[in-house]
Amino acid sequence: MTIVKERLIRTAPPAPPPPHRRRVPRMGGLVHVLLVAWGAVVTLPLLWAVVSSFKSDAEILTSPWSLPTALRWENWARAWTEASIGRYFLNSVVVVGGALILTMLLGSMVAYVLARYEFRGSRLVYYLFVAGMAFPVFLALVPLFFVVRQLGLLGTHAGLIVVYTSYALPFTVFFLTSFFRGLPQAVAEAAFMDGCSHSGVFFRVMLPMAKPGLISIGIFNFLGLWNQYLLPLTLNPDENSYVLAQGLAVLAVRQGYANDWSGLFAGLTISMLPVLAAYVIFQRQITAGLTAGAVR
What we know:
Residues 89-282 form the ABC transmembrane type-1 domain. Keywords: Cell membrane, Membrane, Transmembrane, Transmembrane helix, Transport. By secondary structure, this protein is mainly alpha-helical. It has a single domain, classed as Orthogonal Bundle (MetI-like fold), CATH 1.10.3720. Helices cover 75% and strands 0% of the residues. The protein has 14 helices and no strands. α5 packs across α11 and α13 packs antiparallel against α14. The longest helix is centred in the last third of the chain and has 35 residues, at 261-295.
């Protein structure tokens, strides 16, 4: 028995040497430093604008980096009423809200059809939308001006809503098409077997499943449309219909004569609040939508 054991021990293959692991330089610390620096570059100007909105004009000019001695909420009231920021704000809500509703409805329907149904020319339609993302908007300003004027929509909210929708539709279709392709087809087939129609499957089954993607693209479109300045500057010459970006530009020009810098900073802060509120409320859905789209 001892001889057999010795033979077994001798004939057993030697254990392979542990694999040599290359030492990868740790770049995590440098990345964190760069991210913190970038966050400071982005955040500090915003905080400075918010702090300056509570100062008096004398404090802004004499000590721009100090904290306000008192919170002057009258700056916000003056910007909302005397500078007409309230009217411009409501105009932006109407225009951006209407454009978002149309964009999300049309974009989701087009994306669902392109993702789920194969027909002749479907890929051509998809690539046309992709090409629309690369088309510079300023090249279309002159044709858009004449088209909108011929339609009688120049200087109206309806004209801006239509143009905003066409501006945001290509990216919406591109984003949601890849998202709908990743949704399970078995769920839609089961709904069809239960007697559900095509529209019923879309609105009752697939659209709720695509909620993270819809929220993500909705926030992206909201950011782009809320801060849009070039399109309303060209297509919205009526001062009563000015959106918030136009109103802030007019307010900034007037500061050279009125010296109401506190009102200007208050108006800037008011314009930032909807964007910050939308991101804070839907940040989890945005992250989930982006992660789901990346995994698919």
